[in-house]
Amino acid sequence: MTPPDDIAVATPASATTGTARKRNAAPPRKQQSADGVRAVLRRTLRLRGARVGLVLMLVVMAIAFLGPLFSPHDPTATIGSPYALPGGDTLLGTELLGRDVLSRFLHGGAVILLLSLLATVVGAGTGMLLGLVAGYRRGVRGELIMRSLDVVLSFPPLLLALLFMSLLGTSPLLVLLTVAISHVPYVARIVESSTLAVTGRGFVQYCEMIGVPRRRILTGEILPSIVAPLTVQFGLRLTYSISLIASLAYLGFGRQDPAVDWGMMISQNQSNVVGSPWPVLLPVLAITIVTVGANLLTDSFGRAVGVDLGREG
Amino acid sequence: MGTDTDRYTGEYAVEVAGLTVDLERGAVNVVSDISFALAPGEILGLIGESGSGKTTVGSALLGHARAGTAITGGKIVVDGVDLLSLNRKELRRYRGRVISYVPQDPRASLNPAMRLGAQLQEALTVHGVASRQQRLARIRQVLDEVKLPSDDRFLRRYPHELSGGQQQRVVLALSFLCRPKVVVLDEPTTGLDVTTQAHVLRTVRELCRSHRTAAVYVSHDLAVVADLADRIAVMYSGRLVEVGAAEEVALRAAHPYSRALLDVVPDPHRRREIRTIRGRVAALHERPDGCVFADRCDFVEPECRRQPIGVVRIGDGHTALCRRTEALPVRAGQEEESTRVGGTPDDAVRTPGEVYLAVRDLRASYGGKEVLHGIDLTVPRGVVTALVGESGSGKTTLARCLGGLHDEATGEVSVDGRRLAFGAHERSAADRREVQYIFQNASEALNPRKTVGRSIEQPLRVLGGADGPLSQRVASLLADVALGSDAADKYPSQLSGGERQRVTIARALATAPTILICDEITSALDVSVQSAILLLLKRLCADSGLTMFFVTHNLAVVRAIADRVVVLNEGRIVEQGPVDHVLDRPQDPYTRQLLGDTPSLLHA
What we know:
The structure holds two protein chains of two kinds.
Chain A: H1 19-23, H2 37-45, H3 48-66, H4 101-107, H5 110-137, H6 139-153, H7 157-168, H8 172-199, H9 202-210, H10 214-225, H11 227-250, H12 262-269, H13 278-311
Helix pairs in contact in A: 2-13, 3-13, 5-6, 5-8, 5-11, 6-8, 7-8, 8-11, 9-10, 11-12, 11-13, 12-13
Chain B: E1 14-23, E2 29-38, E3 43-47, H1 54-60, E4 69-78, E5 81-82, H2 88-94, E6 99-102, H3 106-109, H4 116-126, H5 132-145, H6 152-155, H7 164-176, E7 182-186, H8 194-211, E8 214-219, H9 222-228, E9 231-236, E10 239-245, H10 246-252, H11 256-264, E11 312-315, E12 318-320, H12 334-340, H13 347-350, E13 355-366, E14 369-380, E15 384-388, H14 395-403, E16 409-415, E17 418-420, H15 429-434, E18 435-438, H16 442-445, H17 452-463, H18 470-480, H19 497-509, E19 515-519, H20 527-544, E20 547-552, H21 555-561, E21 564-569, E22 572-578, H22 579-584, H23 589-597
Helix pairs in contact in B: 4-5, 5-7, 7-8, 17-18, 17-19, 18-19
C-alpha cells in the first residue's frame, strides 16, 4: 500500500492500515448498519445527560410557550404597588411598576426562545452552505468565503450585534439577523473542515468520476456524512443564541415596555434584587436551565455519534 | 539460517507455554495453547490470515489483551520472569525494556508533537538511563544501526518530516533502544512499498543478529517472512497449526493450510497458476469442534471433525496440527513447478492488435510541480497492463490522469482514436461509461451510509446503461464478483475487506466499461484474499475483453495478472514490454532493483 499523495490520513475512517489488526480475532461483530436516525437517537437517550437535558429543555419550553395560557393576570396591567411581596392576589409579588411577576414571566419566554431558534436555524444554515461550498470547491472561491468569514470572526458576537443595532436600530428581525450572522463563521469553519475530509475519500471521487452533478454530490454524499458534527454545532449554537438574545434584551435591544421578555425583566428589576428577588431570579433560572439542558443534550448526542464514528470503516 | 532450536541448551530469550486468550464474556476462546521458545537472536515468523489470532498472540507476549479479551492461561517467561504473573506496574517496567513492540503503523506510535530526539530520550529516561550523555550516545548508536542520520539536526525533526520508511526505522530504533531480549513486530512493513520493505527487513535482521535479540515477526505474507525468519509458525483459528524451521516450512509444509498459504503467494520470478483458499476464516463462535481447518481443507476426512487434533511431529523441531500429514501428496518442488506453469503470455501480447488506448507526451503536476515528465504509451485492446514503481514514481498519478481524476496535465490520451479530456467533468457520458476506476481503499471508496446495492446502482442511475430493473442488474453484478445477492442490502461495514473490494469491482463493471483502472486494489488485503481478487479480475478480463491497468508496487502481482508491464521511476517510463520478457530479463537497473526487493519464496 502506497501512502496516498494527499495528507488526509488522519481522518478516523481512513485508519485502514489498522483494520487488519482490528479484525484479527476481534469479538464477533454485531450486525451494524450505517447509523439510522432512530438508532442514533436511541443511543443518545441511553445517556443520562441526554435525558436530564431533554427534561430541562422541555420544562422551560413548556413554560415559555404554554405559559401565557395559564397567566393569572394581564402582564401589562398594573395590579398593585411596586415590588409588593408575594401573597394575596399575586403568587410571586409585583415588579417595578406594580405588574404581576408570574404573568410577566410566563409571557416573556416565548419570544426569546423563538428568536433563538430562528437565529440558529438561519445562522447555522447559512454557515453550513458556505462551509460546504468552501470545503468542496476550495480554490479561490473557498479562500474568499473563509477569509471574509474570518473578518466576521474577529468581532466578539455581542459587540458585533451591538454595532449593527446601534447603526440600524432595533427590531426583532434585526436581532435575529445579527445573531444569525454571528453564528455563520463558526458553523462554516466546522462544516468546511469536515467537508474537506469527506471530499478526499474515494466515494466522493468516484461520484466525480462518473459525473454526478456537483450539487448532488454535496447534498447526496457529503451532507449526510457530516450530519453528526453539524448537529452538534447546531446544539451549541442554540445555547449561544439563547444567551446572546437574552443579553441583547437585557441591554434594551429586545421588546419594548409594556411588552415583556426575560432579559428586560432582569434589567428592569435588578436594582431591587435583594428586596424583591423573584422578578430577577425567575428569568435568570429559566435561561440558565434551558441553556444547561441544551448543552447536556448536545454533549450527549456528540458522544453518541462520536462513538459511532470511531467504529466506522 | 535455521538454527536448530531442539539442540539449543542455553537459556531461551523467551519461552511461551500454553498461552490462552478468551473473550471476557461468553467463554469464547480466541487463541489457545500457543507454545514456543526462542533462543537469543532467533526470529520467529508468525503467519496467518486476518482473524487467525496472530496479532492477539503478538500483543499477549507483552502481557496485553485488547479490551473485551483476557489472557486466561499459560506462561510467558522472559529473562527468567513470567510476565503474566506481574501486576500492571511491574509489567510497565518490562515493556519497552525487556520486551518491546513495533506496530504496523509507525505514525500510531510516534508523537507528532514531539521532536524525535525527545521521544528517543524519553524512552531511555523512563527505563532509568540517567545521564544525558549516556542517553545521547545510545541514541546515536542505535540510529546508526537502523541507517538513519544521528546528527543533532535529525534529532530536532518531527515525525511528519520523515517518509513512511524512515518513520518505521525510528520506531525500530525506539524498540531496540533499551536492548530488549525480545521484540514483537506486528506487520511493520505492510504499509510500505517493496524497496522500503526490503530495507526495513534487512535492518531487522541485522539488529537481531548483532544484539542477540529474539524477534516475533507477525505477517500475513509467507514470502516476506520466509527470507527473514529462522523459524515459521503458521496460525489458524487461534492455534499454531504448524511450526518448523523456515526452510522446512517453505519447502516441505506439512499442514494443508500452510500449503494453501504457500500456493496463494504470487512470485515475481515465475508465472504461477493463481490459486485461492476456499471458504473464509470462521468467526470466533462458529469455529468447528475438531480440526479448525476442516471446513476449508481439501484432504478432510470425517475423522478429522470428531475431536481436536493433537500435535504431530514431522521432523526435527517441525510439528503440525494435522492427523493426515502422511496422506498428503508430495508438494511439487519449486523447480518442477516453475517449468510446469511456465509463462504463456496471452495471445494479445504475442500478436499485438491495433492500438486501443494511446498516451502521448503526458505531463502531470501537483500545484505546479511536475511529477510525470512526458509519458508515451500505447495499449492494444484486451491487454492487462501493470504500472509499477515505488511510492512517488508517478504510477498512481498516471492512473488518475487516465481515470479523469487529475486534470492538472497536458498531453494527449485517446481511446479508440477519440481524445479523452483529463477532468471527468469534461468527458462525455459515453466516455465516463467506458473508463472506470477502482480505488485502493475499498472502505473509503464506498459511502458508509449507503447499502451495497445503492452503491452499485449509482453509476447506472447517473450514466444509464441498464436494461431491465436495477435490482436484477445489481444481483447479476454481485454474482459476477462471487457475492450473494443478499449482499445488496448490507452496509460496507458489515463486509470484510475482500468483500468490500469485490463490491467496488462490481460497481466499476456496472456500466460495462472497456477500460478498467485498478489502483493498488489488493495491496491492503491478505495474500489469500489478494489471490482471490486477482483470479476474479483475470476471469473478468478474459470473459469481457476488458483493457485493464493495474497499478501496483509488487512485481509478484504483476507476474500473476498482467500481460504487459510499464516500469515507472520518478515520473518517467524506464522500461516496458511483455511481463515475462521484462521480468525474466530486466534491462533497466531500477527494474532489477525492484525485482530483487520483491519477496519471493524462491529465495528461501
